[in-house]
Amino acid sequence: MGRNHLRLASTLPGMRLVGIYDQNIEAAQQLATQIGTTAFASPEQLLEAVSAVIIATPTTTHYDLAKLAMNAGKHIFIEKPFSGDPVKAAELALSAKEKGLLLFVGMIESFNPAFQKLQRLLKGTKLHGIDIKRFSPFPERITDTDVIFDMMIHDLHLLLLLTSEPIESIKAVAKKIKSPFYDHVITTIHHNNGLISRVEGNRVFGSKVRNITVTAEKEVFDCDLLNKRIYVRDFLTPSPSALAIKPFDQISAELNYFVESIKDKALENSNTNSVIAALKLAQEVLAAC
């Protein structure tokens, strides 16, 4: 993910790539040479040279690096899952607010054009069921967390963006398959108004799947996040109709939103509250496993 940010930060309007830092200094220097920027010897040196920073490091380092950047008075774009701990995340959010800094979490799926279209379609509609699936082959790059905080966190965040209905109960089943952590988790969430949500994350699947199916009062919406498509069918017509969706690059969209929010001094555009809620829900799912 960090390389994607680097690629875009050097080309997007309103952003100027000043440099990078990585604890692997040699790798950072090689990468800096490739893209024509500076590799700093420490995060402190990097922070002296910038007005905003992107943190795309392992989750265990997020809290300390974010604190360091805030104390230096820098706006922060931090990759999911924020700090991984809702208590520390809330502390960071409060600190950013007190210092007048924008803290934004990179929840890329909330910028998926298909999801944004789905949100508009469902506005004001009574929902009966939400089913979200996120499958992928095993990610060799991930060694320090489970599928809940690696992948499912996206979908728990999307779920909370689709419905604000209070949760009555959470049940979950989980398996450790290729790692010491849970690799396959299915959670069923019952809401107070009767809505039932089912979220499944599987990182040992043969192919990628990113789907949201929503059963509403009169229609069923099938949202393919991977291929940016939405199909709608009513209960009388078996054949679904496809809706047109204008594609765009999601990382570019969220970085543009971050930059424009800084320029407009729109600190209220921070998404930390919704991400903290998703982190709390992720902890509850993990506890139910």
TrEMBL record:
<feature type="domain" description="GFO/IDH/MocA-like oxidoreductase">
    <location>
        <begin position="145"/>
        <end position="218"/>
    </location>
</feature>
<dbReference type="InterPro" id="IPR051450">
    <property type="entry name" value="Gfo/Idh/MocA_Oxidoreductases"/>
</dbReference>
<dbReference type="GO" id="GO:0000166">
    <property type="term" value="F:nucleotide binding"/>
</dbReference>
<dbReference type="InterPro" id="IPR055170">
    <property type="entry name" value="GFO_IDH_MocA-like_dom"/>
</dbReference>
<dbReference type="InterPro" id="IPR000683">
    <property type="entry name" value="Gfo/Idh/MocA-like_OxRdtase_N"/>
</dbReference>
<dbReference type="InterPro" id="IPR036291">
    <property type="entry name" value="NAD(P)-bd_dom_sf"/>
</dbReference>
<dbReference type="Pfam" id="PF01408">
    <property type="entry name" value="GFO_IDH_MocA"/>
</dbReference>
<dbReference type="Pfam" id="PF22725">
    <property type="entry name" value="GFO_IDH_MocA_C3"/>
</dbReference>
<feature type="domain" description="Gfo/Idh/MocA-like oxidoreductase N-terminal">
    <location>
        <begin position="1"/>
        <end position="106"/>
    </location>
</feature>
<protein>
    <submittedName>
        <fullName>Uncharacterized protein</fullName>
    </submittedName>
</protein>
